Amino acid sequence: MIDAIQANLLSPAVLFFVLGVIAAVVRSDLRFPEPLYIGLTIYLLVSIGFKGGVAIAEAGLSDVWLPSLAAIGLGAAIPLWTYPILRRGGGLSAVDSAAIAAHYGSVSAVTFIAATNYLNAIGEPFENYASAFLAIMESPAILIGVVLGRLGSGQLSPSGAATASLRSLVHEALCGRSVLLLTGALVVGAISGPAGMAKVEPFFVAPFQGVLALFLLEMGTVAGRRLGDLRKVGPFLLAFGILIPLVNGVLGVLLGHATGLSLGGATLLGVLSASASYIAAPAAIRVSLPEANPTLSLTASLGITFPFNLTLGIPFFLAFARWLYP
Known about the structure:
Number of domains: 1
Low-confidence stretches: none
Number of strands: 0
CATH architecture: Up-down Bundle
Distance between the termini: 17 Å
Number of helices: 15
CATH topology: Na+/H+ antiporter like fold
Helix content: over 70%
Largest sheet: none
Order of helices and strands: HHHHHHHHHHHHHHH
CATH class: Mainly Alpha
Mean pLDDT: 85
Radius of gyration: 19 Å
């Protein structure tokens, strides 16, 4: 376990993230232009989705449908048990509890990428179609989280206005940039298959690690600038941001084992279940629950859970999977 944590901490992806945190702490003027950040995000999402689609074409739907269905179910269920914990245990408002629950039911693409890099580095095989789980787990939690927030604050009713608002929510959750790129690229990859991958491999495979390093450098600066917010969220949310991902991740590994995934595949499902969104969920929540406090959800997901998973969570879920598998 110690060796696994050390190997993960010394990976280029994590080190670039740490460099970004240091840059923010020392108040460096390091800033990524917004168009560059968006460009890096688009590249990573399209690359992940396309490679996942190609892997589905190679594996066949017969191997993919059961773990995919389980992944959707888990992503949808996580907000249902995190919401009452936040509402009653943390004493947060209905909309803030629902917003945070939606972030934790949704997933982090960068955490997933870091986990695949880690497994590749230590030679642990996994199903290449696991990136399909990333695409399908983005939206269900956002939808359920917003519905919980509307119900808890009395905003959801059978009126025409509420129906139109709910329709707008579904559109935002299903057609937002990250979901559309992941799902669309997944379909393109599944249709074009290995022959299509051969044509774009020099662009989507070789530069991937360098683009990821730049993206994590930017994420490090963002997380570093939110370290001061930890004083505002209090000890409850700090504990929530570590303990809930551990529980969710263990459930993900167990579910992966139950649906026939390999040790590496179950580890990835555990990592996804433990992660929290800071791209798709904030955009959807900002539109659908504008009264929610973004400091709470973003500080928890990006300032607490993301660094925890990136450094300690990934090796922990691999260790748990190794204990679980014969």
